[in-house]
Amino acid sequence: MVQKKKRVLMSAAAAAAVVLGVAGCGTTGASSASGNSTPANQSATNTATTGAASTATGGVIEFALPPATNLTWFLPIFNAANDSLYNSQLVDQLYIPMLQLNNDYSINWNNSIAQKITYNKQGTVYHIFINPKWKWSNGQPVTSKDVLFTWNVIKAASAKNAPAPWPFVGVGTGDIPDGIKSVQATGKYEVTITLKQPANQQWFEYNGIVQLTPLPASYMDVKSNIEDEIKYLGANATNLMFDKVVDGPFKPVSAKSSQDWVIAPNPSYAGHKSTVSKIVFQYEGSNAAEFAALRSGQINVGYLDQSQLGSESALTSLGDSITPEYPFGIFWTEMNMYSGAPHASVFDQLYVRQALQMSIDNNTIAKSIYKGFAEPLSGPIPGTPRTQFYDPAENNLYPYNPTKAKQLLESHGWKLVNGVMTKGNQKLNLTLMYVTGNQSSLDAAELMQQDWAQIGVKVSLKGEEFMTFLSKTSNPKDYTWDLATGSGWVYNGPGFYPSGEGLFNTGAPSGTGYSDKEEDALINATHVPYATQQETMQHFYQYEMYTAKQLPFLWGVNVATLAVVAPNVHNVLPYYNGATGVPEMQYWTVSNK
């Protein structure tokens, strides 16, 4: 799930061997509470801030997608079933984000739609000033009319009765849309937003305003009413070639499901223009297929699965660099707590969640399966990369202890019956869904299965491709799974401030049915403007600690992506943009050597 953020840098150049690196995030600015889903072992890449520039022109970037991952959505307004980091990686090449973040979480105003944002002391009125340099590929300027169109689409697509394939995944994040009193065009290049109540200004910028990526009203606003309009956009969002009018550095060329998705430089783009001839997002059936493509040169930007360590010399001997990159994200095992799910009432008990967590050997998963290129997680904020949001007190609240876990279940009336923990007519006989396509995810699922068996929790494994996995876990009516592992959340769009909204609050679009009134109140408290930064962080840490203890998800490990880059491809790591997990591919270049 992924999908997204970061910087102590790893050089992309020297790697004749794999060297473990830890990326540190800047301690100012915001990260995020809402993001894009990403498979756990294919997390978003952190970035270095330096790299070898190249003046080469032409050449093709062949960019490997994670195993068995299709691209399925091509508008910057997502629904839950298609809210993957990998869809975003392509979409952000077509549409300029309202706010582009730097690696230190400051705003890159030069590459953002907004050239500045002002607000009042109370945090109730915000003025967005659009940079007039931006143009659509049909020649028309990007204006407040386009932002208002986006707002109207978001508002309609957020309704509970919004037609399929909606609702909008960002509903509730950044108080969108219910916390907004009005959105008005106060000039050709100015939009004014008024909130119903005061808000932490940085939180609203990073989690609210950031969602308003403009859509081309002149091309897309074609229906007479907004309900027909969102039906029209929803029906066409899965078609890359629908994006005929774009303002980003690239434009669509072709799309073939389970094969490739091709984009080429947009000559109308007003920012730094790409020098490559095209970029191909390449479907890969498995890690083995992707590795073979790297060896043959069919892929020049890809990854190495940890299960393939020991074979990296086949790549480094060709001059490929291999660099570990950690996302600012969290990875987990989900519990199906949706109303009506067979074991929802069981998972609703904190002691059950505690027993399951204490029976996951994350240290062994990190060291043995991911070869040390992973860090165990203990709560909603990762310790690596380190940010101001991480409270070390959350670390290791539930250490691995299957004996204690079993005793905890027994103390609440559970008993072993034929090897399965049983209480009345309830049995801890569960289905664990995992993401297919790579060996490491399967190995981790099998280890969890073995560990849970020690406490009488019988688990049957069920593998699914990532997009099917995501579709199932986002569907409140899908009861074909009880536990789901192999995904996570990279703190990025539709928000960057990691206060848990959209994930852990009641009705969260990216949650799995968890609901707790105190959790809701603590999340809401992080959105309030306070007199000092110390007071702001005090409320944030209260939310963080409570969430770590409550286990709305079972915490897993933060896995590094082992990024592989061919020697003739330049500027990949510096411009992958770990702050969002979405690369600025217009800076990537290819040379002849």
TrEMBL record:
Question: Where, per UniProt, does this protein localize?
Answer: Cell envelope
Keywords from UniProt, A to Z, are: Signal, Transport
Record's keyword annotation contains Chloroplast: no
- Major place of residence: other
User: Which terms under GO biological process does the entry name?
Assistant: peptide transport
Family annotation (Pfam families): SBP_bac_5
- State the name under which the record lists this protein: Peptide/nickel transport system substrate-binding protein
Please report the organism this UniProt entry assigns to the protein. Alicyclobacillus hesperidum
